[in-house]
Every structure is written in structure tokens, then in C-alpha cells.
Design goal:
The structure holds 2 protein chains of 2 kinds.
Chain A (H helix, E strand, L loop, with lengths): L12 H9 L5 H20 L4 H13 L2 H26 L7 H23 L5 H30 L3 H21 L34 H19 L1 H11 L1 H6 L4 H28 L10 H11 L4 H25 L5 H14 L1 H7 L18
Helix pairs in contact in A: 2-3, 2-14, 3-4, 3-13, 4-8, 4-11, 4-12, 4-13, 5-6, 5-7, 5-11, 5-12, 6-7, 6-11, 8-9, 8-13, 9-11, 12-13, 12-14, 14-15
Chain B lengths: L2 H22 L5 H15 L1 H15 L7 H22 L4 H29 L4 H24 L24 H12 L4 H11 L3 H19 L1 H11 L1 H6 L4 H27 L11 H11 L4 H23 L14 H5 L1 H10 L19
Helix pairs in contact in B: 1-2, 1-14, 2-8, 2-14, 3-9, 3-12, 3-13, 3-14, 4-5, 4-6, 4-12, 4-13, 5-6, 5-12, 7-8, 9-10, 10-12, 13-14, 13-16, 14-16
The chains are: A mainly alpha, B mainly alpha.
């Protein structure tokens, strides 16, 4: 946070406390969450529910027991990876709305390698090889899928916002085609669009006996550290951030801007693809149509809430995971539709994006550096 | 919009139509296939046309709006909700219920647009992020209320979707009678041509309004004082401000007009096309509309013609389903709805590559104005 002029004569009381807290880096996100929860509570009350009961249910469902915590971690795993994917693109000045499609195709590839490769080769593979191939090729699929809009942006000027969204719909059609056709689970009892189960050699182990949380959560945390290292400790990361902050300046400084744009998108897709592969190898052991609906858009909110910093992304992911996971319990206890969570999340995003509103409401001075994405269309 | 672009668009549409005629020609006269496909093209292009016009008003005044998708979705839901309230709670007839729904849809679009204007003009939030907020908010609000009102037992509708007022009906234009009468005078039979003309021209009201609004918007933008001022604040707000144009007001007003147009596009989905609401039913059409706006170089006629390309690719899909049995074996991939379903999205990406000349946005598009 840049230095703001210090006002030594803090007024006493609540306002004074707020003024003192205003310099803390997390104050805006926390107030944004708080404000969104209050408005969410008002909406719940308006539709005839009890907001306190709802939020208690939400908390119970997300952190109230060992099983609840495990499930929250299960939800957080793809959120962290997809959130990192969107954040990385943001750092490079690109808006990857296509995490959804990259994730789905990564999952399809991981599932295919997971169930079909042993049969094709005619041998059972050791876990190290099979799991690595499954996750690795899934990630590559995501990277390639994201590199296409990256290339289009760099070399034709086609805006990545529209292209990544179009590729989401193409990915959805492609996945539907594959899961209803050539990759459909041949089990005669199966009526849904899903792949067969992957071989045990392509599965990530659970962390604890009896709980669903798996090694993917630990991997996701490690990847967050890795992304931080990449962005702030390597030349490539410096180039990505420079292109994101000022493409003209980057060009002047001798950075290959076009190459960096393609690479940024590919890395972003790599992470999104990983989110998909981890869901398949660690949790579902197959890919099923419709399981990933909404991850991509949640990832955008997570990236913005986490201020596109890996540590922030991890925290925001755990918060969103807790809300998604606890929402089911809340709906069960209070009959408030779980969709209220989407409303609250949208409000959080609104207040984080428009921090001016929060600053105005809570009388907080100063301003942070802003994310600049709108650099014109087509061009 | 230059003739090269119009030619490119005509070429794509011609290719799509030719494929369908080649397949379906065995069962129907080609002219009837073409006319009914043209009628469908104009109808399904409606939300895209309106969405693109919405984008044009916003961006000509200097505000990038990627929230059109969300505005349409919210308008589709609230318009539909309003119509259902009118018909099943207050017991109104179908037409007044639908008209109230239409009004509510446009107000909803305008309201969401006002939020977008507040974020981007007043608070100077990055406009792409502001639009994303609108999109996510619309998904959340419509999903929540849809479930709360129609799938919870204690709600006003008793946990089920009531029988709504249906959709707007086709406005019959007696062109077929005119053609037949004319041919009768000449002593020849042209009932096929008469039916073809009627297929194309007889449309539902929002579809007709959309075409009319293309013409009106062109006139407003390029022949009125309002249009000149709008373009001035979008190209060079400082200069506009200097000569006394209120930049903030012009941007708010145009974004809200755009929102109301997007709302009309949303109304098409639940009040004219089908009589029900599904979560996420906009299906990316708000974004395709933006692509149409870009390809049309921010002009109403250009955007409309690009919207027609996407309309044609949807009509292509619909007709292929109809002629499923007639598709020859070597083209069997055309039978797969998922494969054909990719066509509009692929066309959008192709068009955005700028293969036909450069797309030039308004100079101050997406830049908040600092005095």
C-alpha cells in the first residue's frame, strides 16, 4: 500500500478505530465480505428466512466438524488452482474468463488417460508414471486451449475476453460430444454423460482414512508458492508483470510482448487444466458432465478478492469453498436456496472491485494501485 | 462498415443456406427452405441485434460494457416474472401481462446498466471488471429468486411454475395476399412465392422492433444532436467537456439506454421465443452480440448484419435438426447437435481475428474521464 498522509488526531471511538485500521492491507476485503454478508442477510430476511440461523448453518456446514473441514478443503482445491490461473493472467494484463473450459478439457484428458491408457498399452502402469501422465497431459490440454486465445490476442488483436468465453462454449460442446459419444461409460446401467472410472494407478490418495480430502489440497498449496516464486523471483515472472503493467514500456525494454502474452495465457491454462485433472484424479475418479459448472466464474471472483496475489487467492479460495460447502447445510437447515451464496459472492466481488464504495461507506482514505484491463477492443 | 465486410457476411450466410438447401432440397422447394430459414435467421438474431445496439450506445459514449449478458439474463427473468405475476396472481389477459413483462424487462436492463454506469463513470472501476460483476450478480440473483419463488414450497407460487401468459404472437403481414392478388391479375400462380414472402416478413413484435431500432439508432447516432454529443464524449471527452457537453450525463444516459435495449433482448428470450426461464439461458448471446458490435465497427447496420450471421448459424442448426434423416452418410457429423452447436462460437472467433480489415473502436472507449 502506498504511503498515505497520516492524520495524527484520530477521532475517538469506532470511527477512530476504523481510521487506524485503514492502513492494514486486508481491511478492504474484510469490510467487503462483511458488507456483502449484511446485505445477503437482509435479502434472506426479505424472503422470509432467518439470517442468523442461515449463517450459523453456513458455518456449521463449513467448519463445524472434521468432516465439514475436510469437505471445505475438497472444495478449496480446484478454487485455489483456478484462482491462481485467473490471477496469473491478470498479472500479465489478460482476463482469462476461459478457466471453465480449460478446466473441463483438462479433466476430460486426465480421465481419458486414466481409464484408457492401460488398455491401450496392454500393461498396468506404475502409479508414478500413470498419475504423472494423467495430470501432466491434462494440464497441457488446458495450456493449449488457453494458448489459442492468447495467440489470437497477440497476433490478430482478437480480444481475449470474448475469445475465452467463446472457447468455453466450444469446450462445453466438445465435452458433451465426447462424454455422450466416444468416451461414454459403457456400463449398461449408466445413463449419464460420464467417462468410465479411472484405473487405481491414476488416483491421488486421500490424506486421511475416512475423509475425502486428498493430496490435491497440499499440491494446490505448493503450486501457490510456486506461482509466487515464478511471478516475483524469475525473469519470466518479471516479464509477465511488466507486460501486464505497461505493454508499451515492456516492448521498449526489449521484452517480446507477443510471446509473453501467449506464454501467460498458456501458463494460466496450465493451472486451470490442473484444477480439472486434480478433481478427476483425487476426487471423482471420472469426468462427468456438469460437475465443473461455475468454477471458472468463481475463480474470477476469487482472484479479484485475493488481489491477484497467491496468498490472497488461497485465503479467498478457502472462504468461497466454505460458503459453497456450508451452503448445502444451510439450505438443509433453513430452506434458504443455496443460490444466495452466489448473490453474496457477487456482492463481495462488487465491493472489492469498486473499493471506492467501501471506502466511502466506512470513510477510509487512500487508494491502492488499480487493476487495469480495459485496453480497447479488436485493435 | 465497408462493402468488403458486407460481402464477407453475405458469403458466410450463403454457404450456410446452401448446405441446408443441398440437404433438404429433396423434401421441399428450395425457395421455401430459404425463406423459412431467412425468417428464422431474423427472429433468432433479435437478442444479438439488440445486444449489439446496447453495446453501441454504451461504447459510442466511451463505456465498455461486457455486462450485456448479465443484463439480458436479469431482464429475461424479471420480465418473465412480471408477466407471470400479472397473469396468474392478478388475473390479467395474456397481452397486457406480456406488455407489463416487457416494460419490467427493459427497466431491469436499465437498472443493471445504471449500476454499471455508477461503477465505471462515477467510481471509475475498470470497466471489464464492472461488467463481470454485473454478469455474476445477474447469475446469482436470477438463480436464487428462480429457486426461491418456484421451487420452494412456502413461496407465493406454491413451489411450482404457474401457467404463464405464453409468448407474443406473430404479427401477420398480408404480403401473401398481396402477392397472390398481383399474380392473379397477371394470370399466373405464385402461391409458393407468396408463402415465402410471408415466411420472411411475418415476425413477432420484438423481432420487428429490433429491425426498426437498427434504423432508428443509425439515425440517432449520425443525424441528431444527441448522437453527435454521444460520439463526442466517446471519442474525445475533454474536447466535448470544453464545449459544454456534460460527459457524465451523456455516459449515464447512453449506458442506461443501452441497458434498456439489452433488457428488450432479454425479454425476447422469455416473452417471445419461449415461455419459460432457465438459469443461464442467455448462453453467451450477450458476448456474441459484443462480437457483432465489434465486427460491425460500432455501427448499427454493420452490427445487425453481423448479428444475422450468428442468427443464420443458429437457423442452420435448427434446420439441420429438422432434416436429420436426409443428411447423407459422409456428412454424418452434421447430425450431431454438439458439433453443429460449435458453429456460432467458432464464427465469432473467426470474425474477431480481423481478417476483414481493422476494427476501430471509439478513441476513449473504456477510459474513465478525469476532469
Amino acid at each position: 500500500m502506498p504511503e498515505t498522509e497520516k492524520n495524527n488526531s484520530h477521532p475517538r471511538g469506532f470511527a477512530g478505530l476504523l481510521k487506524a485500521a485503514a492502513d492494514a492491507p486486508l481491511i478492504i476485503p474484510i469490510l467487503a465480505i462483511l458488507t456483502a454478508m449484511i446485505i445477503g442477510g437482509v435479502i434472506i430476511a426479505l424472503v422470509g428466512g432467518n439470517p442468523f440461523a442461515a449463517y450459523i448453518g453456513l458455518f456449521q456446514g463449513s467448519f463445524g466438524s472434521l468432516k465439514a473441514i475436510s469437505e471445505t478443503a475438497v472444495w478449496a482445491t480446484p478454487y485455489i488452482l483456478a484462482g491462481l490461473a485467473v490471477s496469473l493472467a491478470f498479472k500479465g494484463g489478460l482476463f482469462n474468463i476461459g478457466a471453465e473450459g480449460q478446466l473441463a478439457l483438462g479433466a476430460v484428458m486426465a480421465a481419458w488417460i486414466g481409464y484408457a491408457l492401460p488398455d491401450m498399452l496392454g500393461v498396468s502402469l506404475p502409479k508414478v508414471v500413470h498419475l504423472t501422465l494423467s495430470v501432466g497431459l491434462g494440464m497441457l490440454t488446458g495450456a493449449l486451449w488457453a494458448a489459442i486465445p492468447g495467440w489470437l490476442k497477440a497476433y490478430t488483436g482478437g480480444h481475449e475476453v470474448i475469445n475465452t468465453i467463446m472457447m468455453n462454449y466450444i469446450a462445453l460442446n466438445l465435452t458433451s460430444f465426447l462424454l455422450n459419444g466416444p468416451m461414454k461409460d459403457p456400463n449398461p446401467l449408466n445413463v449419464s454423460a460420464r467417462t468410465p472410472e479411472i484405473a487405481p494407478s491414476a488416483r491421488l490418495s486421500p490424506l486421511f482414512e475416512g475423509l475425502r480430502v486428498h493430496w490435491g489440497f497440499i499440491i494446490a498449496l505448493l503450486i501457490a508458492v510456486l506461482v509466487w516464486w515464478l511471478l516475483w523471483k524469475t525473469t519470466l515472472g518479471f516479464e509477465i508483470r511488466t507486460v501486464g503493467a505497461n505493454p508499451d514500456g515492456a516492448k521498449y525494454a526489449g521484452i517480446n510482448v507477443k510471446r509473453t502474452i501467449v506464454l501467460t495465457m498458456a501458463l494460466s491454462g496450465l493451472l486451470a487444466g490442473m484444477a480439472g485433472t486434480i478433481e478427476v484424479t483425487g476426487l471423482n475418479y471420472r469426468h462427468e458432465l456438469g460437475f465443473s459448472i461455475g468454477y471458472g466464474f468463481d475463480a474470477i471472483a476469487i482472484a479479484l478478492l485475493g488481489k491477484t496475489h497467491p496468498a490472497g487467492v488461497v485465503l479467498a479460495s478457502i472462504l468461497f469453498a466454505a460458503m459453497r460447502n456450508g451452503g448445502t447445510r444451510m439450505q438443509f437447515l433453513t430452506q434458504i436456496p443455496v443460490d444466495i451464496i452466489s448473490v453474496i459472492q457477487a456482492l463481495i466481488l462488487l465491493f472489492v472491485a469498486a473499493d471506492a464504495i467501501i471506502r466511502y461507506v466506512y470513510r477510509i482514505r487512500g487508494s491502492e494501485e488499480k487493476l487495469v484491463l480495459t485496453r480497447g477492443w479488436g485493435g | 462498415m465497408d462493402w468488403k465486410r458486407f460481402g464477407f457476411i453475405a458469403l458466410i450466410i450463403a454457404v450456410l443456406f446452401t448446405i441446408v438447401v443441398l440437404i433438404g432440397g429433396k423434401s421441399q422447394p428450395a425457395i421455401l427452405i430459404i425463406s423459412s430459414m431467412l425468417g428464422t435467421t431474423i427472429a433468432v438474431a433479435t437478442p444479438l441485434t439488440l445486444g449489439a445496439l446496447s453495446g453501441i450506445y454504451c461504447e459510442r459514449s466511451g463505456v465498455v460494457n461486457i455486462g450485456i449478458e448479465g443484463m439480458m439474463l436479469a431482464a429475461a427473468f424479471f420480465g418473465w416474472l412480471g408477466a407471470i405475476y400479472m397473469s396468474s396472481i392478478f388475473g390479467f389477459q395474456a397481452l397486457p401481462s406480456l406488455l407489463v413483462g416487457l416494460l419490467i424487462a427493459m427497466l431491469t436492463g436499465g437498472l443493471f446498466a445504471a449500476l454499471h454506469a455508477l461503477l465505471s463513470v462515477t467510481f471509475k472501476v475498470d470497466q471489464i471488471i464492472g461488467g463481470t460483476v454485473i454478469n455474476i450478480l445477474a447469475v446469482g440473483v436470477t438463480g436464487f429468486l428462480n429457486r426461491q419463488l418456484f421451487f420452494e414450497k412456502g413461496s407465493i407460487f406454491g413451489g411450482q411454475v404457474p401457467h404463464g401468459p405464453g409468448t407474443f404472437t406473430t404479427i401477420y403481414i398480408p404480403i401473401d395476399k398481396a402477392v397472390n392478388g398481383l399474380c392473379g391479375l397477371l394470370g399466373s400462380d405464385c402461391s409458393v412465392a407468396a408463402k415465402a414472402a410471408s415466411d420472411v416478413l411475418s415476425q413477432k413484435p420484438i423481432a420487428m422492433a429490433a429491425v426498426l431500432l437498427v434504423v432508428v439508432s443509425h439515425y440517432i447516432l449520425f443525424n441528431t444532436r444527441w448522437g453527435l454529443r454521444t460520439r463526442a464524449v466517446g471519442e474525445h471527452p475533454k474536447a466535448a467537456d470544453t464545449v459544454g457537453i456534460n460527459v457524465t450525463f451523456m455516459r449515464y444516459a447512453n449506458v442506461i439506454i443501452g441497458g434498456a435495449l439489452a433488457g428488450l433482448g432479454g425479454a425476447y428470450m422469455t416473452l417471445e421465443s419461449i415461455a419459460s426461464f432457465e438459469p443461464l439461458m442467455t448462453n453467451g448471446r450477450g458476448f456474441i452480440a459484443l462480437a457483432a458490435m465489434i465486427f460491425g465497427n460500432w455501427t448499427p447496420f454493420g452490427a445487425w448484419s453481423a448479428a444475422l450471421v450468428f442468427g443464420a448459424s443458429q437457423a442452420f442448426q435448427i434446420k439441420l435438426q429438422l432434416f436429420r434423416e436426409l443428411i447423407p452418410a459422409q456428412w454424418s457429423f452434421l447430425q450431431n447437435a454438439y458439433v453443429v452447436g460449435m458453429v456460432p462460437y467458432l464464427l465469432t472467433m473467426l470474425i474477431l481475428t480481423g481478417i476483414i480489415g481493422k476494427n476501430i473502436p471509439p478513441a476513449a472507449d473504456g477510459v474513465a474521464y478525469e476532469k
